[in-house]
Specification:
about 170 residues; alpha+beta; 5-stranded antiparallel β-sheet; 4 helices; 5 strands; elongated
Length: about 170
Protein backbone atom coordinates (compact mmCIF):
# COMPACT_ATOMS: atom_id res chain seq x y z
CA UNK A 1 0.00 0.00 0.00
CA UNK A 2 1.17 3.51 -0.70
CA UNK A 3 1.87 6.14 1.90
CA UNK A 4 -1.03 8.31 3.06
CA UNK A 5 -1.48 11.79 1.64
CA UNK A 6 -3.26 14.81 2.99
CA UNK A 7 -6.53 14.60 1.06
CA UNK A 8 -7.15 18.30 1.77
CA UNK A 9 -4.00 19.30 -0.12
CA UNK A 10 -4.75 19.72 -3.82
CA UNK A 11 -1.09 19.51 -4.80
CA UNK A 12 -0.48 16.28 -2.86
CA UNK A 13 -3.58 14.58 -4.24
CA UNK A 14 -2.81 15.69 -7.79
CA UNK A 15 0.82 14.58 -7.53
CA UNK A 16 -0.16 11.19 -6.12
CA UNK A 17 -2.69 10.59 -8.88
CA UNK A 18 -0.25 11.74 -11.58
CA UNK A 19 2.44 9.42 -10.22
CA UNK A 20 0.02 6.49 -10.25
CA UNK A 21 -0.74 6.83 -13.98
CA UNK A 22 2.24 4.83 -15.36
CA UNK A 23 1.51 1.80 -13.17
CA UNK A 24 -2.23 1.97 -13.89
CA UNK A 25 -1.68 2.10 -17.63
CA UNK A 26 0.95 -0.64 -17.42
CA UNK A 27 -1.78 -2.86 -15.99
CA UNK A 28 -4.02 -1.77 -18.88
CA UNK A 29 -1.38 -3.03 -21.39
CA UNK A 30 0.12 0.34 -22.29
CA UNK A 31 3.80 1.18 -22.47
CA UNK A 32 4.82 4.69 -21.55
CA UNK A 33 6.27 6.84 -24.32
CA UNK A 34 9.01 9.30 -23.43
CA UNK A 35 9.18 11.15 -26.76
CA UNK A 36 8.04 14.46 -25.27
CA UNK A 37 10.51 14.20 -22.41
CA UNK A 38 13.32 13.22 -24.77
CA UNK A 39 12.59 16.17 -27.06
CA UNK A 40 12.55 18.54 -24.11
CA UNK A 41 15.88 17.13 -22.92
CA UNK A 42 17.46 17.47 -26.37
CA UNK A 43 16.46 21.11 -26.58
CA UNK A 44 17.61 21.78 -23.00
CA UNK A 45 20.97 20.08 -23.53
CA UNK A 46 21.43 22.04 -26.76
CA UNK A 47 20.97 25.26 -24.80
CA UNK A 48 23.59 24.10 -22.29
CA UNK A 49 26.03 23.22 -25.09
CA UNK A 50 25.61 26.65 -26.68
CA UNK A 51 26.25 28.28 -23.28
CA UNK A 52 29.32 26.11 -22.65
CA UNK A 53 30.78 26.86 -26.09
CA UNK A 54 30.21 30.56 -25.47
CA UNK A 55 32.02 30.39 -22.14
CA UNK A 56 34.93 28.35 -23.50
CA UNK A 57 35.42 30.61 -26.52
CA UNK A 58 35.41 33.68 -24.29
CA UNK A 59 37.90 32.03 -21.93
CA UNK A 60 40.26 30.77 -24.67
CA UNK A 61 40.22 33.58 -27.24
CA UNK A 62 39.59 36.63 -25.12
CA UNK A 63 36.64 38.98 -25.20
CA UNK A 64 37.56 41.11 -28.24
CA UNK A 65 38.42 38.19 -30.53
CA UNK A 66 35.25 36.26 -29.83
CA UNK A 67 32.56 38.91 -30.48
CA UNK A 68 31.53 37.64 -33.95
CA UNK A 69 31.18 34.10 -32.60
CA UNK A 70 29.29 35.31 -29.54
CA UNK A 71 26.70 37.02 -31.71
CA UNK A 72 25.96 33.74 -33.47
CA UNK A 73 25.90 31.85 -30.19
CA UNK A 74 23.55 34.39 -28.59
CA UNK A 75 21.25 34.09 -31.61
CA UNK A 76 21.34 30.28 -31.30
CA UNK A 77 20.63 30.57 -27.57
CA UNK A 78 17.62 32.84 -28.20
CA UNK A 79 16.26 30.52 -30.89
CA UNK A 80 16.68 27.39 -28.75
CA UNK A 81 15.18 29.09 -25.68
CA UNK A 82 12.20 30.24 -27.75
CA UNK A 83 11.79 26.73 -29.14
CA UNK A 84 11.90 25.32 -25.60
CA UNK A 85 9.24 27.79 -24.44
CA UNK A 86 7.03 27.01 -27.47
CA UNK A 87 7.42 23.27 -26.89
CA UNK A 88 6.47 23.53 -23.20
CA UNK A 89 3.52 25.85 -23.84
CA UNK A 90 1.95 24.47 -27.02
CA UNK A 91 3.23 20.94 -27.64
CA UNK A 92 3.62 19.43 -24.19
CA UNK A 93 0.82 21.53 -22.64
CA UNK A 94 -0.49 19.76 -19.55
CA UNK A 95 0.15 16.23 -20.79
CA UNK A 96 0.81 13.98 -17.84
CA UNK A 97 1.07 10.61 -19.55
CA UNK A 98 1.58 9.35 -23.10
CA UNK A 99 1.48 5.65 -23.84
CA UNK A 100 1.00 3.11 -26.59
CA UNK A 101 -1.18 0.03 -26.31
CA UNK A 102 0.96 -3.09 -26.63
CA UNK A 103 -1.36 -5.02 -28.99
CA UNK A 104 -2.79 -2.34 -31.30
CA UNK A 105 -0.14 0.38 -30.86
CA UNK A 106 -2.92 2.92 -30.26
CA UNK A 107 -1.57 6.07 -28.64
CA UNK A 108 -3.23 7.56 -25.57
CA UNK A 109 -2.46 11.00 -24.16
CA UNK A 110 -3.66 11.98 -20.71
CA UNK A 111 -3.92 15.61 -19.61
CA UNK A 112 -4.76 16.27 -15.98
CA UNK A 113 -5.51 19.23 -13.78
CA UNK A 114 -6.85 19.72 -10.29
CA UNK A 115 -9.08 22.56 -9.16
CA UNK A 116 -8.22 24.23 -5.89
CA UNK A 117 -10.79 23.81 -3.12
CA UNK A 118 -12.63 21.05 -5.00
CA UNK A 119 -11.98 17.32 -4.68
CA UNK A 120 -12.16 16.93 -8.46
CA UNK A 121 -9.43 15.63 -10.74
CA UNK A 122 -10.09 16.67 -14.33
CA UNK A 123 -8.80 14.14 -16.86
CA UNK A 124 -8.72 14.54 -20.63
CA UNK A 125 -8.13 11.45 -22.76
CA UNK A 126 -7.03 11.78 -26.39
CA UNK A 127 -6.62 8.62 -28.40
CA UNK A 128 -4.34 8.65 -31.47
CA UNK A 129 -4.25 12.48 -31.43
CA UNK A 130 -7.77 12.55 -32.89
CA UNK A 131 -10.15 15.26 -31.75
CA UNK A 132 -13.08 12.87 -32.33
CA UNK A 133 -11.76 10.47 -29.72
CA UNK A 134 -11.28 13.13 -27.04
CA UNK A 135 -12.97 12.50 -23.71
CA UNK A 136 -13.05 14.94 -20.80
CA UNK A 137 -14.14 13.49 -17.48
CA UNK A 138 -14.01 14.36 -13.81
CA UNK A 139 -12.83 11.94 -11.15
CA UNK A 140 -14.11 12.60 -7.65
CA UNK A 141 -10.97 12.07 -5.59
CA UNK A 142 -13.05 10.97 -2.63
CA UNK A 143 -13.83 7.81 -4.62
CA UNK A 144 -10.21 6.69 -4.92
CA UNK A 145 -8.80 7.85 -1.56
CA UNK A 146 -9.96 6.41 1.73
CA UNK A 147 -10.46 8.38 4.95
CA UNK A 148 -6.86 7.78 6.05
CA UNK A 149 -5.51 9.24 2.80
CA UNK A 150 -4.43 6.04 1.09
CA UNK A 151 -4.86 5.76 -2.66
CA UNK A 152 -7.06 2.81 -3.61
CA UNK A 153 -5.24 1.74 -6.76
CA UNK A 154 -7.76 -0.95 -7.71
CA UNK A 155 -10.56 1.62 -7.73
CA UNK A 156 -8.42 3.99 -9.78
CA UNK A 157 -7.56 1.15 -12.19
CA UNK A 158 -11.25 0.29 -12.60
CA UNK A 159 -12.13 3.93 -13.22
CA UNK A 160 -9.48 4.35 -15.94
CA UNK A 161 -10.49 1.02 -17.47
CA UNK A 162 -14.10 2.23 -17.72
CA UNK A 163 -13.01 5.48 -19.35
CA UNK A 164 -10.95 3.63 -21.96
CA UNK A 165 -13.99 1.49 -22.80
CA UNK A 166 -16.05 4.65 -23.25
CA UNK A 167 -13.42 6.06 -25.63
CA UNK A 168 -13.45 2.83 -27.64
CA UNK A 169 -17.24 2.94 -27.90
CA UNK A 170 -17.14 6.63 -28.82
CA UNK A 171 -14.64 5.95 -31.58
CA UNK A 172 -16.84 3.21 -33.10
CA UNK A 173 -19.83 5.57 -33.38
Amino acid sequence: MSKPVNVYSASEVSKTLDEALPSIFERLNYTESFKLTDTKLYIGYSIVVVSAVSFLLDKQLGHRNVIPYQQGLVAAYIILSSLFWYFKKYVEKSITYVGNEKKTDDKISICTRYEECEPKYFVTFVKNDEESSKLEVVLETTKVFNEAGYLQTDLLYNWFSEQLKIISLKKKE
